[in-house]
Amino acid sequence: xxxxxxxxxxxxxxxxxxxxxxxxxxxxxxxxxxxxxxxxxxxxxxxxxxxxxxxxxxxxxxxxxxxxxxxxxxxxxxxxxxxxxxxxxxxxxxxxxxxxxxxxxxxxxxxxxxxxxxxxxxxxxxxxxxxxxxxxxxxxxxxxxxxxxxxxxxxxxxxxxxxxxxxxxxxxxxxxxxxxxxxxxxxxxxxxxxxxxxxxxxxxxxxxxxxxxxxxxxxxxxxxxxxxxxxxxxxxxxxxxxxxxxxxxxxxxxxxxxxxxxxxxxxxxxxxxxxxxxxxxxxxxxxxxxxxxxxxxxxxxxxxxxxxxxxxxxxxxxxxxxxxxxxxxxxxxxxxxxxxxxxxxxxxxxxxxxxxxxxxxxxxxxxxxxxxxxxxxxxxxxxxxxxxxxxxxxxxxxxxxxxxxxxxxxxxxxxxxxxxxxxxxxxxxxxxxxxxxxxxxxxxxxxxxxxxxxxxxxxxxxxxxxxxxxxxxxxxxxxxxxxxxxxxxxxxxxxxxxxxxxxxxxxxxxxxxxxxxxxxxxxxxxxxxxxxxxxxxxxxxxxxxxxxxxxxxxxxxxxxxxxxxxxxxxxxxxxxxxxxxxxxxxxxxxxxxxxxxxxxxxxxxxxxxxxxxxxxxxxxxxxxxxxxxxxxxxxxxxxxxxxxxxxxxxxxxxxxxxxxxxxxxxxxxxxxxxxxxxxxxxxxxxxxxxxxxxxx
Length: 696
Known about the structure:
Blueprint: H1 3-14, E1 23-30, H2 34-45, E2 49-55, H3 59-68, E3 73-77, H4 86-95, E4 102-106, H5 111-119, E5 124-127, H6 131-171, E6 175-180, E7 183-185, H7 189-194, E8 205-206, H8 207-210, H9 213-223, E9 230-237, E10 243-250, E11 260-266, H10 276-279, H11 287-302, E12 308-318, H12 324-341, E13 346-349, E14 355-360, H13 364-378, E15 391-401, H14 408-417, E16 420-421, H15 435-454, E17 458-467, E18 475-485, E19 489-491, H16 493-496, H17 505-524, E20 531-536, H18 539-543, H19 547-558, E21 565-570, H20 571-576, H21 578-589, E22 594-600, H22 606-613, E23 617-620, H23 622-626, H24 634-642, E24 651-654, H25 663-668, E25 673-674, H26 689-695
Parallel strand pairs: 1-2, 1-3, 3-4, 4-5, 18-20, 20-21, 21-22, 22-23, 23-24, 24-25
Antiparallel strand pairs: 6-7, 6-11, 7-8, 9-10, 10-11, 12-14, 12-15, 13-14, 15-16, 17-18, 17-25, 18-19
Helix pairs in contact: 1-13, 11-14, 12-13, 15-17, 17-19
């Protein structure tokens, strides 16, 4: 496949893709057994989300839950299976003015059932067996709810922002006013002073009074388009007839005030002169100028028929460098090549070496063509690389600009977050409604993973779990798997395992990870080393009847103590198939292997899972860590969750620690161990300075 086709394919996928990052969500369940609700949680987790669940059995419990936190979704069963009727749920939500979507699951819903459900406020009535349809509809409702809540937050803040803007305008040294139908209004004190007006009589002031002929024609021309922006030096005239030169900036109208154009006049501004040497570099827009262009494009898109695409090119020198002199030389060389490209599209130079291209038009092929053009330009032999830089690694992201797009800064952020290496053929998981299409995706991903295992494209990384106390002497690491993609890019599990969490090939992957990890322990950390490892198991492996025998045999062959191994299982996977998990734990514990339940607190059966498995370790669900800053939720919820835990046999791990601020609070709550990027990012060796000092 040619590089051009690779880019084309990548952009096609990116334009339809979903974000990688997992989203924490809270779900309510009514009318389901714990096995069904936990199975749904496991299903939703496999789609890239991180759900927590809670069961409500009555109106009183539903009201209590609603007062506890902001929930994202309600799943309810048919009325004959639940004490809480689906219609009672929607009625109570309406009474409480809660905009909370409800999905009703039924064995075999009919068309009449669908009509009744829709008329009563149910968002979707779905067959409980249609797993991919449930995932699809859930994702759609969550996205709709996210946008609604964001708009609500914006509405709440609008009034305060309006007050602040008015205050800043009044205090500003710049002359600020608004143009409405050829008249000036809302003039601030600096405007009144600059034009020597008597009091604030701006309502009677027209443009003809302030602008001489040529300047008036220029401004009137700009006013014809409500989305245009303008900045130039014009001649102005005050109320006494005296003329002066000033920098005039005319801004686009906003959707809430389509007939109002803000104008800012700076009589002290001097037009800066750019030297010939700087002229070339200034032909590319700055990030600030790009945001103004995006805002203009957004205003045009609001009227329809003016869609566009924003391309984000992340450029990294190889080898990586932050030398300001090298970066400056690269910027100048890149600018020279980009100018020679003679692109029809708006180009901007962003932070570091990154570039953005604003491509107007709804035709996606234009965006692909622009990406190929930039790629070819940066791969051109005429691009002079400074000494110390051998080549450039190029990643590209794309996002659409249309009448549903967010703010300019958010549009730029979306494009940046979607950037992928141009050699990356990863296809972000999409929502599937067609089971045949979904199976084709699974088959393709399965084949790719099997090839990666066979061709040694997988590698292991290790992240330490560190004790918050001083008594622990073990050196513990969690084993993480990555897919190698070229010399400098590794794919995270979410990028190549998203659609395979329940597939048979996961058993093969788990066995490869375990076998490779045990070999590393035997070769690099033989007994009497204190190094221990946590190894994740997929749900398919938990259900595998032959897995425990295979693992026990492997431990025996390698002469490794089972006490050095902890098998880590997701609580939602365990809860969905509790008996299989109990049987597995019983068998591997016979050779000393320990058990960890991760995502603890995410399912509706946390207490039941703990009492049946009695794990040596539990790892809190990441949502609890994210809520630590909220005293009414984080610490309180963790305390309630850990109340039934027997700390004499079970240690508690807090994952996803990204700063030092949470550590004192976790220590006070009795958390035993912590893990996260603040402690240490995943490394290719089992090496952590604190462990090494302790051993010494």
